[in-house]
Specification:
Elements: H1 12-19, E1 25-29, H2 35-42, E2 46-51, H3 54-60, E3 65-68, E4 80-86, H4 95-102, E5 106-117, H5 122-129, H6 151-160, E6 163-171, H7 175-178, H8 184-200, H9 202-205, E7 208-215
Parallel strand pairs: 1-2, 1-4, 2-3, 4-5
Antiparallel strand pairs: 5-7, 6-7
Length: 216
Amino acid sequence: MKYNLKPFKFSSHDKILNLVEKNKKVLDVGCASGYLAFFLKEKGCVVEGVDTDSESIKEAMNYCKAYVLDISKEEIKGKYDVIILGDILEHLEYPDKILSKLKENLNKDGYVVISLPNIVNIYPRLKILFGHFDYEETGIFDKTHLKFFTRKSLKELVSNTGYKIERLEYTPIPIYLKFPKAPKFLLNFIYYILYILSISWPTLFAYQFVVRIKSN
């Protein structure tokens, strides 16, 4: 499933870009069309991207060195200051093995930036309450998801694979994508309220977790 840039503030892409420091050598796993690389280059970063979709890689090559690779089956070569796993781990059968293996690809003081969805967000809770667990094209119920995470299980994954959390942030439900034709002023107001709720009560209102982790 192809995902596009979420260009609004407090989105997972906004937070990923903020968690990557300037002038770093970055590997973007699941780089899609290279939309993160475009902005990372503006921060002085040197970016490489990998993705399983060859058409996406053709687009990504406009912004970074990019090549086709399936991280669940093939080895990553090279060392990086930052490895981005944006909405990747939930698509993998063994995310713990991938995280453990990627430590070999980190330079000294390197770190990994991860985003993944919160399965106990209020939206899936309400959906299940009313008897529905239908897979969707995108989002928390994306039909290609193999794993589901809570904040607790994310922390356990990080700890069990030999990392420690440096930063943990939360995103609100991306209502701009859900209701693209709604009045902008109304969306802005609701989105800000949802963001306040997501950082005040993340286990219920955070739509995604965005975390920066470092090897112990």
